[in-house]
Amino acid sequence: MCAKKASGSAPNGEAAAPGKEEAAEHDHDHDHEHDEEEGLSEEEKKKIALESYQKAGKIAKEALQRAKAATKVGVKVFDLIADTEDFIVKQGGGIGFPMNVSINNVAAHYTSGARDMTEIEEGMIVKLDLGVHVKGYVADTACTLNFSKNPALENICIASEKSMEAAIDMIKVGAQTNDIGKKINEIIKSYKYQPVKDLSGHSLDRWTVHGTKQIPLIPQPTGQQIEEGDVFAVETFASTGEGQTHPLQIGNIYQLSLRHVPKIRNQAAKQLVGFIIKNYKTLPF
User: Fold this and answer.
1) Where are the domains of the chain?
2) Phi, psi of 59 (to 5 degrees)
3) Which tens digits make up the pLDDT trace of 203-259?
4) Contact status, residue 231 vs residue 53, Cβ threshold 8 Å
5) What residues contact 234, with CB distance under 8 A and at least 6 apart?
6) What is the pTM of this model?
7) CATH superfamily of 2-279
8) Residues whose CB falls within 8 Å of the CB of residue 205, separated by 6 or more in sequence, listed in order
9) 128 in Cβ contact with 99 (< 8 Å)
10) DSSP letter at 152?
């Protein structure tokens, strides 16, 4: 079992709708990678999964460190994302999801398109969130950078970090996700902030960033049990607002739902769907 060390802080809980205007091409033949596991024993499959998670995690860690160092006042957000994703591919990883750079009251899930001229400025709180996959096994990591001198925001990153660390310590086989949520809520509120209630940590499955299990940021009446083999991304968000998000009317991240692919007659559309399936399967792009 492995966990993602990621924390995000949003001065006001406002979540961006998913989006990305231009999808970068990747040369990984995911169909071939999937076929590699056919006929293998369960132990062999587990070994491939573990090795893939480890490689993805190593690349993700290096990519985040590089992105943190490059995030400076005056840097164009689109260029930061393009450079980071280029590094990931050159290291042998696939893009688990478009890198998110969410600023100030935008809590999560925002990525820049080519027309976005936004630059990092003094006073901003910047959330970096990136994903790397190897053979469909995703490592998901994030951090928050505070360029603000506002005293009210002095401890917001600390609140997120401390609650994240406590949550990671609690992740063990048999633990209940609602108990972890209670601890996250308790720590964030001890710093006089509000947890963002409709964002959460989540399990990671092959070719799936958001799995079926969630680690909430507020107490829940019931939870889910952590089992051997589960993989989690631990995410905590502290807010100076009410801790409630709403979708923005922008978005350029997309994801293919294989359960809802309509019958397509147009040849160009068929080729597009084929390209998406081959290069991304059910990962966001």
Assistant:
1) 2-279
2) -65, -40
3) 999 999 999 999 999 988 899 999 999 999 999 999 998 888 888 777 788 888 877
4) yes
5) 3, 4, 5, 6, 164, 167, 168, 171, 201, 215
6) 0.84
7) Creatinase/methionine aminopeptidase superfamily (3.90.230.10)
8) 211, 212, 231
9) yes
10) G
